[in-house]
Design a protein that fits this description.
Strand order of the largest sheet of chain A: 1-5-6-12-11-10-7-9-8
Number of domains of chain A: 3
Shape of chain A: elongated
Region (Disordered) (chains A, B): 293-315
CATH architecture of the largest domain in chain A: 2-Layer Sandwich
Number of helices of chain A: 14
Number of strands of chain A: 16
Oligomer: homodimer
Pathway (chains A, B): Amino-acid biosynthesis; L-histidine biosynthesis; L-histidine from 5-phospho-alpha-D-ribose 1-diphosphate: step 1/9
Mean pLDDT of chain A: 91
Low-confidence stretches of chain A: 301-310
Protein name (chains A, B): ATP phosphoribosyltransferase regulatory subunit
Order of helices and strands of chain A: HHEEHEEHEEHEHHHHEHHEEEEHEHEHEE
CATH superfamily of the largest domain in chain A: Bira Bifunctional Protein, Domain 2
Organism (chains A, B): Azospirillum thiophilum
Helix content of chain A: 25-40%
GO molecular function, one term (chains A, B): histidine-tRNA ligase activity
Chain lengths: 392, 392
């Protein structure tokens, strides 16, 4: 059996070993993303891999229930769950241990999540999530801050051709509610809009049909979409969403005039738990890199452990990046040169080479041909008489 | 309920949230350790959090069976296990996917492990392991390389008062076998030696009693211990262990003359799966920081998946550091200065401050007193009229 087939037979589907060059690439990218978050005041927290099921899967976490592995804790005799998403854990930390910290509270994280099933788009069942949460701020400035931070961080690690797709998943619901549609009709409309199925929207849209069709066709490059949106007659709630979108876009334009921004006025899929301005990050090369948006942190109250949640929680926004797709868009950094240091080289000589930026690979026994040995060990260089020489 | 009690009630025993300053401290230390490993040619691999139980718990992994959580994989209908130790995974990768890579193979890793129970010394059930494996080298130079690398890396992250305790856990077995003791007697002797119980050693040691007592009392500072050891009459196998210890110590002395080295000639506990020179890393402040030593990678053959393992595997050595204890020994780096940038500050002005090394914390709305707001948000500085001013 070839090594690759052998290895994949050894591991469960959707789980894999990250091998040398790829592992270094991912680690360097994660490190740089976290450095960018830290530079804007986001402080790192590390929640555990497992928690009590009832905490991890309450509130927004409930969405991941079917994707979550369970474990029995022999200590407490209670069920635990392996996290399938880190976001609810950060909200829990913010609203419990850090509930007395000054707001807005800026937190960031990086860690592994595990899922019961892979999806068609993401067959992996384990991947790295990296992200931020900005908790306790209602302002459009907060919405703009997290979008700009995501763009800044992705640009810093070398993602080319980046674009941001803004949406306000509450707008359609508010339009429908404002025009008196029932829950079942709204659900059908949502499905039709997610399919971008104009005929179905016309068929089930009733009084909202014309407006929703206009929203659907207006979606696209931000300036054109906002112009079209400005001309539409919106019910009051949706009008608030329009103002927030306009305001946030203006803040993005002021900070990063060259940023490619599109607006999707009917998007809902993937944003079921978002309560306001939301966004998806794209790269032309790799597709969707991550997403984010507004939600209510600790909205269910259960996570507070006192059963006295107000059902509203704190205003919050943030984003999550998926390292598996993201890395496909990022060129690996050039690895530093490897120099073979033959057997008998002093520790001090090797240390000096490392201080100059070389990776040293020590010979553990004498060899006849140091250049050949260097080549065998993937070193482009070897040390001879105190000089670094180049193989070949 | 105070926030801390509330939080600990929320999480299972032995699991905890790593909060801001501690999480950054750990991340920076892990990053630096891996950079030191990489500088000596160790390439990073990242095995998954879970694997099929039969692979993860075969060979040396079997030792962790009772400490390992199991999960049913609905995809394959087979049992999976959450790793309680990363070392067996690295050995698996080396002997399967990387079996055709040139030897010696140098690999490093950092990751989370999960255990069913905490111990008295380490109540945590989840912690970070960081380490290296050097696979395919028999030489004393390999033993010395991993000890020196551990010392170098720990020194680089600022561990003070570091010492290395060398041992050869095979020596006692070889002495006992050479003097004709049976398996049961050897087990009893091991237990007595682990307790450093001289009376019991004399009682059950039979023909080995005098020699083992000498080994026990000779243990201590390396030079004195080696002098005492040199004078003892050893059976052939144990004589080989003595030569390896002498040779390795000489290599350590040549590279790092100032290193504090002790030798324990009877240590066994914690080294049940070691097959040669082993070591423990200590700091006066924090106790045991990690351990390492020789083993056979892929020794059981099962991990090769073809049932044709030769029962011997490849010679290997390495070490694992436990970040939880280690961080207690390491001073946190000074955090960069935080500067509050009031509402309305341009993105470009904030970017320039970050390029100068500041952490910027953006005001999301106008405030009357920027200095007070800076203080409230844990910023020692604020930006006014383009200048960074100091709070208080």
């Amino acid at each position: 059996m070839p090594a690759d087939a052998l290895s994949s037979a050894l591991l469960p589907a959707g789980l894999h070993d990250v091998l040398p060059s790829e592992a270094a690439h991912e680690a360097a990218a994660v490190e740089r993303l976290l450095a960018e978050f830290a530079a804007q005041g986001y402080r790192r927290v590390d929640p555990p891999l497992v928690e009590f099921e009832e905490n991890l899967l309450s509130g927004p976490g409930a969405a991941m229930s079917k994707q979550t592995f369970r474990l029995m804790d022999p200590h407490s005799q209670r069920m635990m769950a392996v996290r399938a998403d880190i976001t609810p854990q950060i909200a829990r930390i913010a609203t419990t241990r850090l509930k007395n910290e000054a707001r807005p509270l800026r937190l960031c994280y990086a860690g592994q999540v595990l899922r019961v099933k892979g999806s068609q788009l993401r067959p992996e069942r384990q991947f790295t999530q990296v992200g931020v949460e900005l908790i306790g701020a209602l302002e459009a400035e907060a919405d703009a801050e997290v979008v700009l931070l995501a763009v800044q961080a992705l640009t810093a690690i070398g993602v080319p051709h980046l674009s941001v797709d803004l949406c306000v998943p509450t707008m359609v619901s508010r339009i429908c509610a404002g025009l008196g549609l029932g829950e079942e009709e709204i659900r059908e409309l949502r499905a039709a809009l997610d399919r971008k199925d104009a005929a179905a929207v016309a068929a089930v849209g009733g009084p909202a049909a014309a407006l929703l069709e206009s929203l659907m066709t207006a979606s696209g490059p931000a300036d054109r979409a906002m112009q079209a949106l400005a001309a539409l007659p919106l019910p009051e709630g949706a009008e608030k969403d329009r103002r927030r979108l306009t305001e946030t876009l203006a803040l993005l334009r002021a900070a990063m005039p060259g940023l490619t921004v599109t607006v999707d006025l009917v998007e809902h899929r993937g944003f079921e738990y978002q309560t306001g301005l939301s966004f998806t990050l794209f790269s032309r090369a790799a597709g969707e890199l991550g997403q984010g948006g507004r939600y209510r942190a600790g909205a269910q109250g259960e996570a507070r452990g006192d059963g006295k949640g107000d059902g509203r929680g704190e205003p919050a926004t943030g984003f999550t990046l998926y390292m598996d797709t993201l890395l496909r868009a990022v060129p690996a950094a050039k690895a530093p040169g490897r120099v073979y240091v033959p057997h008998g080289t002093s520790w001090e000589s090797a240390r000096k080479l490392r201080a100059e930026g070389w990776v040293t690979v020590a010979g553990l026994a004498p060899v006849a041909d140091a250049a050949a040995e260097a080549g065998r060990l993937h070193c482009g260089h070897w040390l001879a008489d105190g000089d670094v020489r180049t193989v070949g």
